[in-house]
Structures are given as C-alpha cells and as structure tokens.
Amino acid sequence: MLHRLESLESCNYNGMDVAVLERQAARLKWQQQNYVVQNNNLVELCASSMPQFQGLIGSNIGSGQMVQLKRPEVFLGSGDFQEFVNFPVAGAEFGDSEKLDLVPPEAAADYCISRTSSCQMTALNTSVMKEEREDMVLEKMESTTGSGRESFNKRKPEAVADHKGKNKRIKGEGESEVKTKCSTEISRNSSKENSKASEVQKLDYIHVRARRGQATDSHSLAERARREKISMKMKCLQDLVPGCNKITGKAGMLDEIINYVQSLQRQVEFLSMKIAALNSSVQFNVENLPMKEFPAYVANFPAAAKLPAMAGLPYFQLNPLQKESVNCMLNESILPAQTATEGIASASVSISEQSLSSSSMTQLQPFSTWNMDPQGSSSNLTVIFHSSSIVRVEYIRIWHLIRYTPDTDTS
Amino acid sequence: MNTSKPPTMDLQNLNPSSLKSRFATRFLRALTKINAQKPISPSSPTEIFQRYRRIKVAADKSMAYSVRSRRTWSRATLWRLRTRSPRSRLATLARRSSVKTRTTTVVDKTSHGKENKEERGAGLGVEEEELRELVPGGEAMDLCNLLDETAHYIKCLTTQVQVMRTIANLYSLD
C-alpha cells in the first residue's frame, strides 16, 4: 500500500500540482484566514485539477485505498462548516490563537489544519458530509491503522470526511495529491503518530467519540466553545496571578491559582490577627480621625512602600500575655512552614515586651523588612528581643514574598 | 494619629466608588464598632483571639458587602456569615463535609455526558475540587463560571490585603 501511494505521488501530475501543494502548505500556516477565502481557493484547486485526478482515483485498487485517498477531498470548502464538527480541538493549544472567534467552522478548520498537519486538511464540504456511511469508515480505519481506539479517534475526523467524500467523487478530486501525501505520511508514521498524537490529543478527541450519525453538532459546538472560553479565562487568571507566565497547562495553572488564593486568605487572617493585637494596645481614637478622609488615605496608601518614618521607629509593644495570644493565634491558623507569607513573618516579628522604656530598646525590623523585600531572594527575618524577657521567635522563610508581590493600588 | 505622611497620596485621584474605597470605609466603620464594644485594655489571649475573629469576620463581611450580590462568592460569603453561629465550629465543619458530598453529586449531575467525566478523570478534577473549596460558593458552579469567580475573588482579596496591611501599618505607627 505504501508503494502504491508513493507511486501515485510520482505519477505524472500536472505541473500545477506542485503549486497546488505549495499553496496548500502556505494556507495551513494561516490561522486567521477568512474561511470563505480558503474555501474559494480550494474550490479553484479542485476545479483545476479535477479531471486528471479522477482518473487516478478510478484506477486505484481496493476500497481501502479509496478511503484513504478520499480523505482530503472532503475538505473542499464551499459549503458551510456547520456539520463538520467532529474535528478535534485542542483546548489549551487552541486558545493560543486568541484572535479566533468562537465561530466553530473557522475554528475547526484552522484547528484541524494545525493539529492534523500531516494530512493538510483544510475546508470541508458540507454536502459531502451528508452522505456518510460510518460503518465502512470504522472498518477501514481499524484495518488500516490497526492500533486500536486511539488511532481510530485520531483518524476519525479524517475518516469521516473521507467517507463522505467517497460518495461524491465529482467534488474536488483536486486534493488527491494532498491525500496521497497525507496517507503516505500516515501509513509511514502510523504507529509513532498514533502514540504521540493520541496522548497529546487525548483530551481533544473526547467529544469526537460521539457517533457521527447522531445529531451531536450542537453538543460538539457547545463543547468546543466551552473549551475556548475556559482557556481564555485561564489566560486572564494567568495575568492576575503573579509568576504564572512560565507555567503552561491547566493543571499547573490551577495549582498556582489555588496556592495564590490560599496565601491571600492566610494573609487576610494574619492581618486581622495583627490588627486585633494592635488594637488592644493602641488607643484608636475615632473622634480624631476625619472619617471621610481616612478611607481615602488608607486606600491610597501604597502597600509595598517603605514608610520612611519606620526606619527609626519601633515596634509595637505587646505584653507577655498578648504575646501568648499571638502565639495561640499562630497555632490556630493554618501555617504550613513552607508557605509562610508576609503575615506570618510580621506576626512572629512583632512580639516584644511592653516595658521597654528603661531597658535597651529592642530593635524590631518589622514592617519595613517584610514590606520591602518583594524582589529579594528568600530572606530570613531575625528578631532581636530584649534580653530579659522574651521568647525568641525562630526564623521563618518568606519566599512567598518573591512570588506573591501584591500590586499597589489595584482598584 | 499619624504624624508622618506616606510618600504618595493622591486624594484627588481616588475614585470614591471603587472597590478599595468602599471596602476601606466599611471595614473602618466595623473596626471602630469593635473597638467601641470592647475595652481596649490588654486582655487575655482568649479575648484577643475573639477580637481577631471578630475583625476577620468584619473584614470578610465588609468585602462581601462592598461587592453586594453581584458575585456568587459574595453571596455565598454573606449567607455563610449570616447563618453560621459564632461558637459552633463543629457545625461549620459538619456543614463543610456535607457540602463536600453535595458537591460531588451536584457536579455529577451537571456533567453532560462522557466528556466531563473524562476530563475530570484526566486530572483536572482534583484541582477543580480544591478550587471549589477555596472560593466561597464555588461548589455549585461549572468550571467556566468558577474561573470567573476566582478571578474576581482574587482581585477582591488583594484589595482586602492591601487595605488591611495599610491599617495595620498605621496602627503600628502610633
């Protein structure tokens, strides 16, 4: 079979065939092309090279060959694409071509070009699709590939298209050299492609398993549209979550998102704990505050700025009781050591004795330290406590500071 | 209260109806209420712990109120805060476990055919479930809406963290 196909290629084709192949190859690289334009081109091709290929096809031996040869001819386009919904669509990869509308025909056309590039399929002819006999396709595919379900899935769209084309020989036979090339490649690399493509396209082909005879168009369309939406949203989330640029794939992204949300929630807990602890020691005079301006002030306060006043300033003071309570809170909250956030650092740092007036000042490098280290490498906070009093808090790594630098003034 | 002004302060550019200002206003109001209720004297660890819980609840509630009911997660948070009794953590845990079981049934019911199951079987499901647990109200949403809610939730959480950090810094300066 391989030999026959190769011989077909080497047949005395028209000189235009090379041009045809080149044009088709060029077309494959277009991702945003107008579907109609593609269709028109294909129709031209078909029309031009029709007569000569007809003979070739007629001379083929065996229905198996016919099926394979017919494969691309289905992809002549002049009809609308609506029925050709079984083409596999890779969710994640497809989403890379962001400008694509969610119009299934274009999407399917472009997608199947990119995914099944070995076959160089382009557009479909709907009318061809309508007369499909699935049984033969199934037989053919399984016999030719012989590698089971996955390869069947891989070839199903092609087979489907094939099969329809089989009944409509008059329609563009112009694609036959494409078909032959396609089929040679497929038969040559069948096992390799199967194993590779099936793994890669495992997710994509899931919806293709629906039988073609059923009215699965709306389902498949909806499924494809859904996948595209999901991939678009994953991209938006990628922008929101810092440090996700290198990560590809849904699972990794979701992991990052989950970690980020968890760290944000923990930060909220710690900040509330800190405010609670601070509240108890600091008089918060409501009357002195201009309540209208204060929210504005608070809201405009750049989160990661170092307060210049902090440099010489202290520490806030907790008495030992409060220190215990903070420790309790530390234990209460969820604190895996490896995901220490700023909050943990600040809470651990901000413990000192209350009565420091007489003794030497303990220098806490609290907020400035943990505030100002967004791009630094993982830093350890050391806290120097007053000698007479306090429990030394051990180091905590703040590597999340690197990863999760908060935005300033996001509104 | 604060003698030192921060380096940048743009009162004119502040949008009074932005999420940040809405949240800041509400949260500060809640804080003053909390401070008014309890004596501010240094107290036992349990009292501080209680105060911490109250402040956390106030933070979540004010953020949810700032978002109103436009988002599923805010509605879920508000509902959770309203119906949850302050002392029954066991009840919360029980509810969470029941919600988890309900989640799986809901998700199974909403799956349209084989595709979803296989997708979930491909490993996407584990992270999805975790995300659903994290985002309030995420149990009964499909993946598409869940990602939307997550994006908005992340945005609101970052705002919350910023404002609270600022408040804490301001406190510490006194």
From TrEMBL, chain A:
InterPro entries linked: bHLH_dom (IPR011598), bHLH_ZIP_TF (IPR024097), HLH_DNA-bd_sf (IPR036638)
Bias kind Basic and acidic residues: ranges: 151-176
Subcellular location(s) of the protein: Nucleus
SUPFAM superfamilies in UniProt: HLH, helix-loop-helix DNA-binding domain
Residue ranges of domain BHLH in the record: 214-264
Gene3D superfamilies assigned to the protein according to its UniProt record, in alphabetical order: Helix-loop-helix DNA-binding domain
Pfam families assigned: HLH
Alphabetical keyword list: Nucleus, Transcription, Transcription regulation
Top-level taxon in the UniProt lineage: Eukaryota
Region annotation Disordered: where it falls in the sequence: 142-176
SMART domains named in the record: HLH
Protein name: BHLH domain-containing protein
Lineage, top ranks: Eukaryota, Viridiplantae, Streptophyta, Embryophyta, Tracheophyta
Automatic annotation (TrEMBL), chain B:
Domain called IBH1-like N-terminal: residue spans: 17-84
Name of the featured protein: IBH1-like N-terminal domain-containing protein
Bias (Basic and acidic residues): 109-121
Region of interest (Disordered), ranges: 99-127
One of the Pfam families matching this protein, by short name: IBH1_N
Composition bias type Low complexity, residue spans: 99-108
Keywords linked to the UniProt accession: Transcription, Transcription regulation
Domain of life according to the entry: Eukaryota
